[in-house]
């Protein structure tokens, strides 16, 4: 089946039918779960907290769930498995979530230094970089799946490259969502990630997690979307600068343009500065806002919030859908009805 995506490009997709609706799609920002200043280093504390919060949001039962990572790891206790622990603690009694994560300190170095995002698979350096990038991002994906599985979440890593996703001039051209839908219907939580993929024109490029989320939202229609980041939300300028203001609510209009509702700013377009780190091959916050606006245009609320905080837990639980409390810190992006 071929349809136009939100940029007007034609995208080939597959059967996406799910028997029950998706509750939430979560983006774990790379900066929130890794240490971006240290190559391939996971922020273990944040990842553990995020996984615990996801368990609370996904699994309706408050009982402790048995872990699902039964692999032997260096420095970890021996594998302990008691089949009786599982009983009938119903995995079906859970909300349907999809997790997508960024690369953070994984993948970006390999991609940017080899030029994978620019294409040119005929060049030895680019081909080697494609391999190195995928090794890096899939190793991070495995660790995130492990963390979620340890919490009792039946998570399954799903790489876009392996699922047949591809681009054309960096725009999404083909996306097989049937495997994602099948995994959800089977009671699993799919865990996708930004990936190196084939490009029909350039040979290869980087498909960002934010673009993946936008596409998943368009076809699977979740109730809401949560972006977990390393800062409280979207600011009018880099948050490290003096007098940076947290933009608490952004409204998206019918034509896809956006404006700040809260707090009120004058000449918003001139006051909001978007910066991209030199090593970031996926567009950084600029891409995040653009994709979030595209999702909000579908009538799906988007929450951008700092990971591993009480604010992120409230967003994941869906507590913000009808009313945004004054004490909640984050950014809401929603369609201006």
Automatic annotation (TrEMBL):
UniProt keyword Lipoprotein, yes or no: no
Similarity comment: Belongs to the isopentenyl phosphate kinase family.
Record-listed E.C. numbers: 2.7.4.26
Protein name per the record: Isopentenyl phosphate kinase
Coiled coil spans: none
Site (Transition state stabilizer): 36
Keyword Zinc: no
GO biological process: terpenoid biosynthetic process
Lineage, opening ranks: Eukaryota, Viridiplantae, Streptophyta, Embryophyta, Tracheophyta
Residue numbers binding substrate: 103, 108, 209
Binding site for ATP: 104, 230, 284, 288
GO CC entries: cytosol
CDD domains: AAK_FomA-like
Annotated Pfam families: AA_kinase (PF00696)
Alphabetical UniProt keywords: ATP-binding, Isoprene biosynthesis, Kinase, Nucleotide-binding, Transferase
UniProt organism field: Quillaja saponaria
Reactions it catalyzes: isopentenyl phosphate + ATP = isopentenyl diphosphate + ADP
InterPro entries attached to this UniProt entry: AceGlu_kinase-like_sf, Asp/Glu/Uridylate_kinase, Fosfomycin_R_FomA-type
Domain Aspartate/glutamate/uridylate kinase: 92-305
GO molecular function, one term: ATP binding
SUPFAM superfamilies (alphabetical): Carbamate kinase-like
């Amino acid at each position: 089946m071929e349809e136009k995506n939100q940029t007007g490009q034609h995208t080939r997709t597959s059967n996406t039918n799910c028997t029950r609706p998706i509750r939430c799609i979560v983006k774990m920002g790379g900066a929130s779960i890794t240490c971006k200043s240290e190559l391939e280093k996971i922020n273990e504390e944040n990842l553990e907290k995020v996984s615990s919060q996801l368990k609370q949001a996904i699994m309706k039962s408050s009982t402790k769930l048995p872990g699902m990572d039964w692999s032997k790891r260096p420095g970890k206790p021996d594998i302990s498995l008691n089949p009786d622990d599982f009983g009938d603690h119903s995995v079906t009694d859970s909300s349907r979530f999809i997790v997508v994560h960024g690369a953070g300190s994984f993948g970006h170095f390999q991609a940017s230094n080899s030029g994978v995002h620019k294409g040119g698979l005929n060049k030895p350096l680019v081909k080697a970089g494609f391999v190195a990038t995928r090794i890096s991002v899939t190793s991070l994906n495995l660790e995130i799946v492990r963390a979620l599985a340890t919490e009792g979440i039946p998570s399954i890593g799903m790489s876009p490259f392996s699922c047949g996703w591809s681009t054309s001039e960096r725009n999404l051209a083909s996306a097989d969502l049937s495997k994602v839908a099948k995994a959800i219907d089977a009671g699993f939580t799919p865990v996708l990630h930004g990936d190196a993929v084939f490009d029909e024109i350039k040979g290869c490029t980087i498909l960002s997690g934010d673009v993946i989320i936008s596409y998943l939202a368009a076809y699977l229609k979740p109730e809401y979307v949560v972006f977990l980041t390393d800062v409280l939300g979207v600011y009018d300028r880099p948050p490290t600068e003096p007098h940076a203001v947290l933009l608490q609510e952004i409204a998206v209009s019918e034509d896809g343009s956006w404006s700040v509702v809260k707090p009120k700013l004058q000449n918003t377009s001139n006051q909001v500065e978007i910066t991209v780190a030199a090593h970031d091959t996926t567009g950084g916050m600029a891409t995040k806002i653009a994709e979030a606006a595209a999702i909000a245009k579908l009538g799906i609320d988007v929450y951008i919030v700092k990971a591993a905080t009480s604010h992120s837990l409230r967003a994941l639980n869906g507590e913000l859908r009808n009313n945004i409390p004054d004490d909640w810190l984050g950014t809401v992006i929603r369609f201006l009805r």
